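Subject: sequence -> structure tokens, single chain

Hey, anyone have a minute? Need the predicted structure for the following. Not urgent.
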Amino acid sequence: MAGMEPVITSPAPANPACVINCTWYGEDGALRAIDLDSISDVLQEDSKGFVWVGLYEPSDAVLDKVQEEFNLHPLAIEDTRKAHQRPKIETYGNSLFVVVHTAQVVDERIRYGETHAFLGPRFLLTVRHGASLSYAPVRARLERERGLLSMGPSFCLYAVLDAVVDNYLPITDSFRDTLDTLEKDIFAETYKRRTVIRLYELKRELNKMRLAVAPLQDALAQLQRNQAQLINEEVRLYLRDVQDHAARVNDAIDTLREMLGTALSVNLSLVTLAQGETVKQLGAWAALLAAPTLVTSWYGMNFTHMPELAGRFAYPLLMIGVGAVCVVLYRLFKRSGWL
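Reply:
Had a minute. Here:
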């Protein structure tokens, strides 16, 4: 019955530190923490329960052990051992191998990791590498809802994928908030070099994020179409919802990338316009200074016969003439917007 607490029948056994959880889930809602060595024995004892094992950056010995217990394909184990895989879905006999990229904000930067999941008829093995939030809250929610656990390990896989995709949403929201703040700096009166640097960093982070999310949509679509009987038919509906969320995240990333590209172009245009205004002002002041400089340089030549020097009011008239030229030029530049 949904909402009832699961029955825990034994304390957790000792497992290596990289084993985050190793739990057997019975059909009646009971659960029991087990050790890696007893996985195959437990599955033989109860023909209707399933096992969920969660690992974080496991050692080679632990991977060899789970390969033996679950009879996993060596190629899939080799991919998990090396990590650095692209998001994908592969079928190996009676098991599915799923790879998705995860994201986590660490020190105001996005760090990426991977989750490798092995889905079998009666088991789910999740292996986390790099930056990745724990799936403990996901397990806790499922353990509180016996009706969800009754759909088997495929629903647990859906819950993990849903958590991975939902974790992208707050990251895109934070990018949008940061862009809104930077837009105010873009249209400020003073140029800030840090604004351009931050815009570039955001676009770089979004490009990386798109490389993680875009292939995830194809992997989820492939998982829905997979003909293996490992995926509960009801779970396929839930997977479609996850794919919809992934498409929303991808659309948000594309929109933010376009907005960031536009913001960079606008910032460059505004800086160019500001520089043009400065050049215009410098040119206007240079013209104002050129008029008296031209006149004074003319009279600075050593000519003996300059008739205009003989007049009594020649010097005052010269000053008035130079001043008038400067005033006329100033008014012309002011009217044209150069000053």
